[in-house]
Amino acid sequence: MSVGGSGEAKGGYPVQTIIALGIVGGLVGIYLGHFAPPAYAFFGGIGAIFATIWGADAVRRVASYGLGTGVPSIGMLAFGMGIIAALFGLSIGGTAGPIIAVIVAAIIGYVIGALSNKVIGMGIPIMEQAMAEISCAGTLVILGLSVVIAGSFDYAAVIQYVVSTGYIALIFIIGGMGILHPFNASLGPDEKQDRTLMLAVEKGAIALIITGFASSLHEGLMAASINMLIGIIIWYVAASKHYALIKRDAYAVVGTGLLPSAEELQ
After folding, report:
1. CA 143/CA 153 separation, integer angstroms
2. Which of 106, 125, 218, 220 has an alpha carbon within 20 to 30 A of 152's alpha carbon?
3. What is the pTM for the complete model shown?
């Protein structure tokens, strides 16, 4: 799983700033989506985008030490931990459920990080902290996208509209992709933090669009349309910015044109 790396990733945005952005932005979005009318459930998705940025940066920092196939694996692991923490927190916490879920996620993530270093022997200096961060970010993404679908983080509503319907599997995949894919798509000697994290915003917006569509079965077409519209706007802005960053960092960006026909190849 480890292929050798160059050490800790560098970037212009301080770690503490991104952590604060993920926690505060994630929780504020989740609570706004929970307490606001159904038409504003998209706030949960915006909170999930903040958490996705945090998770993608944590993956970037830990994977820069040499994770190869472990980049996708660590994203899926984050959501495995996140589902456990999210449902546990909501089941016992009531209004404080999301906060309890994040605390539980941090504990689970730290323990798994310690086992990875001490037992498996991965020897990555920031593994414990990074796994705690990724677990927390995954939990917030799950909660945020669940709010989009269910219109609430009430435990009974999440079980009825997210878990029982199977949408939890959808969240697992699209949320996990938002955290693992940005670095997986950008890794290499020319990887830049801002370009990687802008891709995370783009993937988080796609998750909002998809869960917004899924919300139509419970919240109705009007609320679902608003969810999807907000997601599309965020995606367009992020995709445009990401393309601009690609052109900034690439030696050249050229179009290949249409593939030649069979007759032309003969």
Report:
1. 7
2. 106
3. 0.88
